[in-house]
Amino acid sequence: MLVESPRAEPTGSGAGRRWLVGGAIVWAVALVGAGYLSARNSPPTVREQRSVAQAAPIVDRAAGELVAAAGPDAVLEISRRRLSTGCRLTAARDGVTLERSVSIRTAEADGPAMVDRLTERLPAGYGARARHSGAIHQLRADAGEFVAISGGVLAPGVVTLTVSTGCRPRSTDLVAEAEPTGRPVDAVPLRVLTGLGAAGVERLPGTSVPCPGGGAAETARAAGRRVSGTAGRQAVQAYRSESTAVIVRADGDTITVAATTGC
Which is nearest to 56 in space by CA: 217, 141, 219, 175? Predict the structure, then answer.
């Protein structure tokens, strides 16, 4: 009787399979390690890779660049950070947007020239570009890591640029924005309101952003009430006092003063 012998395994096939399995494990570990290092050290390729807290310093730095580009003679105001909810990262995940603005007051006809000045003086890496078309005078720039600068002439003599993160993942480690350091600018709004005879004067939250060459640009604010019988329509006055830009807003019986030192 013939008995079929079992098929012999090709020499080295078991070792080959073990080598393939071992190689796959090593390759997987290498991929995981490379991904971890890339996530820690590589620049983001999409906006959602950086949280709003990680983008906040870029927003503040870009605002400082705008102040410096406007020049030492500009009459301007730096807004506080604005954190907005309701945007969507995906269909199932919402996010937040962080913004702040720099608003510059000029003579009514000088707004387009200010847009060009900002375009020319912002860092080359921002790729700033201006657009002039009829009554439209706009600026667009990229401050890095998907933080955008946009805006332009909003009204005759008013140029406003907004720095925005776009929609980002929520974050619990967002550092509070810097306040004015208590320099003389802090006292200017109070002094102006006192001079105008306002009542109930109170200090409002201010803000501070870093200047490109060091130091900080700061906006201090205060508000008060007009005395009885002097309330009127809305009005804005803007001027420079030595090294400080002052913007006075009167709306009904409320007067608000913002004083800003530039870079």
Answer: 175
How would you write 48-107 as a 3-class SS string? HHCCHHHHHHHHHHHHHHHHHHHCCCCEEEECCCEEEEEEEEECCEEEEEEEEEEEEECC
Q: Is 177 exposed, middle or buried (0-12, 13-18, 19+ CB in 10 A)?
A: middle
Instruction: Supply the DSSP string of 164-197, one letter for each residue.
Output: E--SB---S-PPPPPPP-S-GGGGHHHHHHHHTT
pLDDT digits (tens, 9 = 90+) for 191-244: 999 999 999 999 999 999 999 999 999 999 999 998 765 555 679 999 998 889
Q: What is the pTM of this model?
A: 0.80
- Phi, psi at residue 13, to the nearest 5°? -70, -40
Phi, psi (rounded to 5 degrees) for 198: -70, 150
What's the CATH number of domain 47-164, 3.40.50.150, 1.10.540.10, 1.10.645.10, 3.30.2030.30?
Answer: 3.30.2030.30
- CATH 3.30.2030.30 domain position(s) in the chain: 47-164
Confidence of residue 8 (pLDDT cuts 50, 70, 90): very low
Nearest to residue 178, comparing CAs of 209, 220, 211, 214?
209
Pairing of strands 93-105, 129-133: unpaired
Axis crossing angle, helix 52-70 with helix 111-121, rounded to the nearest 10: 120
The candidate with the shortest Cα–Cα distance to 83, out of 92, 95, 91, is: 95
95 exposure class (CB count in 10 Å sphere: 0-12, 13-18, 19+): buried
User: Amino acid identity of 181?
Assistant: T
pLDDT score recorded for residue 254: 94
| Predicted local distance difference test score (pLDDT) of residue 234 | 77
Q: What angle do CA 75, 224, 159 make, to 5 degrees?
A: 25
